[in-house]
Amino acid sequence: MSAGESRNSRNTPPSLPLTRGGKKRVLVALSGGIDSAVSAYKLIKEGYEVEAAFMKNWSSTRGLKYDECPWLTDRQDALRVAAFLKIPLHTIDFEKEYSATVMNYFFKEYKAGRTPNPDVMCNKEIKFKLLYDWAMKEKFDYLATGHYARIIRHPAETKSRIDTQSGSGTGTRVAQRKSKTGESEFVLQRSVDEFKDQTYFIYNIKTNQLPHILFPIGGMKKISVRTLAKKLKLPNADKKESMGLCFVGKIRLKDFLEQKLKAKRGSIIDTKGNVLGKHEGLHYYTLGQRQGINIGSGGPWYVAKKRLVDNTLVVTNNPKDKLLQIKELEIHSVNWVTPPNLPLSKGGIKLQARYRHQGSLENVTLSPVSISSSRGRPVSGLYKIVFSKPQSAVASGQSLVLYDKDICVGGGVIV
């Protein structure tokens, strides 16, 4: 194997039935980027029967920073990679579904004054739902992607410690698990490359999907992936990393939001109530934002609060202002990849969490919140998070993802 291609024996895929002459079939999501291209190459070298899929999710150029069709450029790169690797490429049109789920969510959340994460939603609704279902329907054994993450198979050695109060899946110890059937189970683990780790974006993967998903480069560092791409002379080896909105491209947020959200002028005030200027719409700002406030001297200014009730933006020039600090919050729409133990009588469970990609892992205590419905029945799915120390600029609408050491156990959306 080439440098950077070493495999962790604990990261081996499950032993599923062989098909088509003894080879397991894998559909790899080929985006046109380096990570998915190297993933496809590694799968071929490991003996899988590989086919690729390119997803067309967005074709409009309105609001983009550059007058181009990113999907056409990316598809051309995917076609070149597929031809180079001599594998079939399927182009699947999910544009209608993407608009109905990801983009509608994107605009709805901004309109409500929250800060959405479309990349999380894209993985949840498109890649690990529609594309995964398509792969399974077409009789592939696995769906593979170029995410920096790992799925680890643990032997059934320890007794379950879990009795979940709500959520999906059955209970187990996070580090080593034993199912009701006694078979080995799988957990979602952070990447070897901690800086590039993408478990934050894929915490909505379902427990029963784990045996059917592969992350070929999860055991590599980005520099090794790029080095291997150049060594192989992949046609996209020199392609720069995409930093834009998932499958859309680099956007001018203001122009993009104006497609659906009208400008609504309001006052900008400081924490003492002094009027400092005017804003064009609260949906253009997020908590803790420093750039784009444009109110002149006395700064730098930070967004401290968005008051929807009177369309007022509150700012502060103190980065440690109490309005920016928070120690407790709640999350909803929780998905458990590996459900944790929730002993109500003991006040919750100790975990780690991050509320932004590449943010630091913070110690937290998690416990379920009991809310009565209109019929007086408890409503599940809402959880309280208490940080061990105050956190700054935690935005409503963003995802908070939970970890037990290096295992991603799940996550939810910040209320």
Write the layout of secondary structure elements.
Layout: E1 25-29, H1 34-45, E2 49-56, H2 70-85, E3 89-93, H3 95-111, H4 118-137, E4 142-144, E5 149-154, E6 185-190, E7 213-214, H5 222-232, H6 253-257, E8 266-270, E9 275-279, E10 302-307, E11 312-316, E12 325-336, E13 349-354, E14 362-368, E15 371-372, E16 378-379, E17 383-392, E18 399-404, E19 407-414
List the defining traits of the structure above.
19 strands, globular, 415 residues, alpha+beta, disordered N terminus, 26% strand, 20% helix, six-stranded antiparallel β-barrel, single chain, five-stranded parallel β-sheet
Helix content: 10-25%
Q: How far apart lie the N and C ends?
A: 47 Å
Structural class: alpha+beta
Stretches where pLDDT falls below 50 for ≥5 residues?
1-20, 156-184, 373-378
In angstroms, what is the radius of gyration?
23 Å
What fraction of the residues are assigned to beta strands by DSSP?
25-35%
Task: List the secondary-structure elements in sequence, H or E.
Answer: EHEHEHHEEEEHHEEEEEEEEEEEE
Our count of helices gives 6
Order of strands across the widest beta sheet? 12-17-14-13-18-19
Tally the beta strands. Answer: 19
Explain the overall architecture.
This protein has 6 helices and 19 strands. The protein has helices at 34-45, 70-85, 95-111, 118-137, 222-232, 253-257, and strands at residues 25-29, 49-56, 89-93, 142-144, 149-154, 185-190, 213-214, 266-270, 275-279, 302-307, 312-316, 325-336, 349-354, 362-368, 371-372, 378-379, 383-392, 399-404, 407-414. The chain has a 6-stranded antiparallel β-barrel with strand order 12-17-14-13-18-19. It has a 5-stranded parallel sheet with strand order 3-2-1-4-7, sandwiched between helices. Strand 18 and strand 19 form a beta hairpin.
